[in-house]
Predict the structure.
Amino acid sequence: MKKGYLVLENGEVLEGNSFGVKKNVIGHVIFNTNMLGYQEIITDPAYADCLVVITYPLIGACGINENDHNSFTGAARGLIIKEYSRTVSNWQATMTLEDFMKKKGIVGIEGIDTRYLTRCVAKNGIQKGMITNAKNNINSLVKKMKQYKETKMYKKVSSKKAYSWNVNNKAKKTAIVLDYGVTFSLLNWLSAQGFKAKVLPIDITPEQVMKEKADLIVLSNGPGSPFESEKEVKNISKLLGKKPIIGFGLGSCFLAIALGAKAEELKSGHYGFNKAVKDLRANRVCMTQQEHRFTVNKDSLPKDTEMISVNLHDDTLEAYENKKVKAAGYYYLPNTINI
Amino acid sequence: MPRRNDLKKILIIGSGPIVIGQACEFDYSGSQACKVLKEEGYKIVLVNSNPATIMTDPQMADRTYIEPITPEVVIEIIKKERPDALLPTLGGQTGLNMAYFLDKMGVLKKYSVEVLGADIAAIAKAEDRDIFKKTMKSIGIKVPKSGIARTIEEGFKLAKKVGFPLLLRPAFCMGGAGGACVYNSEDLEAALQGALDTSPINEVLVEESVLGWKEIEFEAMRDCKDNIVIVCSMENIDPMGVHTGDSMVVAPAQTITAKECTKLIEDSKKVIRAVNITGGGMNLQYGVNPENGDSVIIEINPRVSRSSALASKATGFPIARVATKLAVGYSLDEIVNNVTGNTTTFFEPSVDYCVFKMPRFTFEKFQKADWSLGISMKAVGESMSIGRNFKEALQKGLRSLETGRCGLGADGVEMFDANLSKKEKIEKIKEKLKIANADRIFYVKEAFNYGLNIDTIYELSKITKWFLSNIKELVDLEKKIKSSKGSEEVLRRAKECGYSDAQLAHILKKSQKQIRSLRKKKIEPVYKLVDTCAGEFDSSRPYFYSSYEEKDESRATKAKKVIILGGGPNRIGQGIEFDYCCCHAAYALKEAGYEAVIINSNPETVSTDYDTSDRLYFEPLTLEDVLNVIDKEKPYGVIVQLGGQTPLNISKGLEAAGVRILGTSPDKIDIAEDRERFKKLLHKLKLKQPNNGTATSLRQAQKIASRIGYPVVVRPSYVLGGRAMEIVYDEASLERYMREAVMASSEHPVLIDKFLEDAIEVDVDMISDGKMQVVGGIMEHIEEAGVHSGDSAMVLPPFSLKKGLVDKIKECTRKLAKELKVIGLMNVQYAIKNNEIYIIEVNPRASRTIPFISKSIGIPLAKLATKVMVGMSLKELGFTKDVTPKHISVKESVFPFARFPGVDIILGPEMKSTGEVMGIDYDFGNAFMKSQIAAGQILPKKGNVFISVKDKDKIKIIDTAKKLQKLGFKLVATQGTACSLKEAGVKVKRVYKLHEGRPHVVDLIKSDEINLVINTPSGKGPKEDEVKIRTSALLHKIPVITTVPGAVASVSGIEALKKGKLKIKALQDYNKKK
């Protein structure tokens, strides 16, 4: 086993062992509280610029199977875990997690005190980190991290070609999905809501979108930040009011900015299966799966845009709606939509 | 919705005595329920026959009835108290069944008592197998093929349809009682009969077996607004076919994918909605086919359960507390999660560690029982352990069990007879892997050692390969440890994988102390927090486990604090009574201004509840693990005398490590435990003990026995619960015993005492502050000396001893306490023969009877003892006078014989009971009767009594027989007894013995012509006839009395019963301050 190190932007170094691909990578260190479903996590494009800490310590027991990928394109950049299970014990598995990581270029480190790391992120906020095999000259690594910048990550994961997704024969309506890093979860959710989906690459123009026959425009979640994305926002603005629009995750941030609100970064992100939200209109609570680092500042919502739900724990905005232009943004997949 | 204001008074039904399948987890849940209802300002009426519970402490409820949990009694309570509602979901199956039957009887409607949490329809959907099946079908959830049989014939018809192997599951039973796995039609009839008899409504589900599938469980909660949370998933390491209570379990589930898990969770939500739980929790069990992921639902429990207690401790989410809040109207999002302090309970816990639950068995006490594991639960307790990986949790769990193991092997315990060849060993391994048993996990390890590969082991055991591969890693690591000669890197890895210092010492041929100093300052544990949220939020509750990792999160304060060592897993001999004492210690310490820190490994207990102590460490109770916590906490002192034998076992080691032991010193404790030192002490005090000697060899034993004369009591030193204790009547039996016992504990000598036949045994519990000694209670045993004190019925105050004798006993007790410089509690057992007082045993620690006495006299002895241990005087505490209550309290024991078919039910010096009940009244007859009813011994009011006693008892039984006749019973006896009764002028019908012709006595029992059996075993080992009589009576639920004093007491009970209805009275009324 080769030694691996996680160097944090604040100079702290955690030691572990390398697995998966061995190379230096920089990314945002975020944690996910799912106890199962590492495959879905590492194949979700939303993590393409992330070094994902999985808080559950034992990872790999189910291997990787053909049915549980969450996208065609996406892969997390790095995986940080406590213990990698080399034995696979699930009937669906077709390969080991490590083999898959090698195939997808995912860098891994195990043997990390992930609980400590999680507490750091929860207390001090998300910072950048680097997984490396050599820890000499930490200062230069930190410097490198601080300088490291990437924009429009979603462009890297967006599909190059358009494709259709229809797993529900009874689906009558059509949704156009702008792919900032779409997941199969979202597409399957659309099917369950009665939509055939057509996924379009994001370099498509608003005019082209309008040419499509569609009952709904969907802005998908994806990696990276919603800032410095004037072009995307401008394009979305052009679509406002023409067709009902619903945005998710990053897409929801873009939509909010287009509506006149401000996006903001969450302290430690919301990643995991157990994120409780409160539906302010129905006065109900529901448990949701989330994966987002950014949200919309509640106070920045324009007058015509109302809050749908907030996070039960930290009270941040989880969904909003503008009835006038029929636009809504979510940071989770709601049970039903009414738009 | 907020708290319901239309309710004022709520009745809680407890679960009664500790039995297999229903243990102290229901005290844990019931206590939480009481706390919540009190917090919410409701009046609480509680009924529970188990005095050893925290929930029956008089301040927990407004009205506490320690009465039998039968419909008649509960109806009386309802009549008297007129509660608005009944909360049946916290008291296990007993509570649930009671609610169901009260409803069927129309009682609830008549007195307008509302059922909270799960209504009667919901209970029926879960418990009535037919309705359950239909409900599952209606929501599209697969169940195994099955049908309901009410008769043997129906059972056979269904068997044809379902096919073998099949499972029999009696309706309205818990812990798989009466259930069986049947492999062929030959065995079907007997199994069916057993199952039909066990079900209180005589219904049995005949079900397709899914043996070998994976078993996955969930704990779900739903509120009145239809919010649902899934608290925890659990994966059984043992496959389907082994009762979940007997299975090794991990949480969360490890080897199903998120999608598979989501599907089961979606199913669970459908189920909890269909059953319509409107405010409470539910346990759901699924079978999952490891080949293709198919799943079937096996069972649901619409109540808190053993699993929910485990899930609560595993995640930090207090299910019982939340269930109670939901039952009185709150919704999940309105309740604050007290563990984090800043989230609501509408939250699904995420854990960042691996939890391992290991069942604890006591087969060694039931030699003739079937030791294999099946669908009827046999475990008497469990340990839980937490680690950052499975290997660590596994090893900690195994050393928590206190079966003499230090982890997964590497501790010098040999799994094979020395003379087996390699081939024979492999054969044995294969057999042990195939048929589940208590030691299976150790055989998995041996299998790797003997070269079997993972696939073979899987095929034999059906234990999921992931678990096997983890064990393989341990096997490989062990080799590495050996070859590394203890390098720091390897030692660290070993500690990360849960190896104890004791194991490392064994592997590296060093002493434990050497290992400890080798790793000190370099490789030390850190403490991580159990916070329900995997570190996402700050948590206010300090609940910890150890791990060998980077960063420590412990929150040791500088405050003055005391560590209380718990009792570990429940087993026969050490149960809930000791946990009760530990809890009281925590309460007392807080009152006295100390911080209370608890270390324990038993998830079923109140002591491991999040709010019992100031800080909780969920750790094994070994010297190493305890010292690690002490290093971190640096307490003022440690309390070892309340947790039973477990903490005492390590007290010397603790003292040697410089730890202050509070209360009586370990050296004085040792005097009481060490035969020779004790003998000297008694000599000095001029106190008598039965003639005795200590032997380390057979020859020595023979010499001693012939000197003091047979019969003798033999036992190994340092045991609790009379483990391996026997009365030996001749030299041949002595020889057999010595061979087995000395094998069992080669380091410890065997103690030999003269057995005092027909002596009266007395138990005394006393408290001392070093200056003053106060007797808490003197209990006279009903059964004669020779029956283990944990098994015999006891009466407080004594019923046949003269005052002079009682005073003498008190004097002896004080003398002993003074000499042993007792600070805290002490228990003494005496035998009285011909007005002479003999000292059988002195235990300078809390005894099993402390909660019973405390309830009876209305004084919390364990609490007082704790305060005394931290320096307060009894005078200060206002407890200066011996107490003799006016009412009579009877403690009766409850036995697990029904779980072990074929085991003889006679009582002896080895303890066999799992739990106890209490009967209180103002006269002996009624108090005794209540204790019998509560213990499930339903004495008849009329009918036929079969009497067969050994020669020595033939005269003694005459009075009893006469009384029975006077009470209108008809007597039946075998020849010998019949003759002596006839001679005494008692009318009796003679019946054949088994070999004399038919119909013989067992035929009569089988055809329900006998209503009570009085059968005392002849001295030298039971005869086959007698065993058959007793076991068949047990099977037919006919009460059996095996001692003459027991018969005498029972007759007074029957007398009382015939005179009038049982009267009920709340505990609060018995000990009212005038």
Summary: Residues 487 and 679 of chain B are 48 Å apart (CA to CA).
